[in-house]
Amino acid sequence: MKIYWTKINKIIEETPDIKTYLLDCPEGFTWEEGSHTHFALEGFNAGEHPNRSLIRHMSISTLPHENSIGITTRIREQCSEFKTILRNLEVGNKVALFKTYSNVPLKREDKNVYLLSSGVGLATFRPLVLDYFQRADNVKQIHSLNIDSSKEFLFTNVFESTPDKKFTSRFVDNRKDYYEELKSLAEDKEGLFYVVGSDEFLMQNIEVLREHDIKPEQMMLDKHEQELPEFLPKQKIL
């Protein structure tokens, strides 16, 4: 396993409790849209065994052409040891990246794509939308639906409806509006539905989609292949 050590080059306060850490791109580090990585703080590998409290599984919120690796995360007032240390890091501090992989690259199958997310889960979808804007080949259109009860919505400059690019975006701050719209979207029996959020959020979305006869192979979850049966049991998974 190769560990890439790099430095923070910028910290963006997206909202009062969400920050994006922009990291220098280490030589040889590559990724694609929808990627996640293991993001570790200094000292995580100082002992005989890795200190897992200093490691988190994070989505990358940027694309390679932006020349920085973006890690966007929510840091609440009461938070874990990891988030407490992260909150106090500054530009120039070192962090490590390893085991980078994409579970949710943008599929180009001449279908409508629906991006369903909760809160900071939208960070996973930002690169998919930017990739689509760069090259819309074999994607009919994209619609993003995000729920965030804080009403402090992320990346509104990217997630802005652009009809001429066949991209629409909607933010809601309550479950009722979210699931009403999801049911409407699920009327598209050929669409591809990407879901990012907590496990509970994934299960709730899957339940609605299955009730509307959306097949498992139309649902893209940000989970390793071996984890998928926990969410889509006894179904054929592609």
UniProtKB/TrEMBL annotation:
It comes from the Bacteria. Residues 1-107 form the FAD-binding FR-type domain. Transmembrane segments: none annotated. One of its GO terms (molecular function) is oxidoreductase activity. Signal peptide: none annotated. This is Dihydropteridine reductase. It comes from Lentibacillus salicampi.
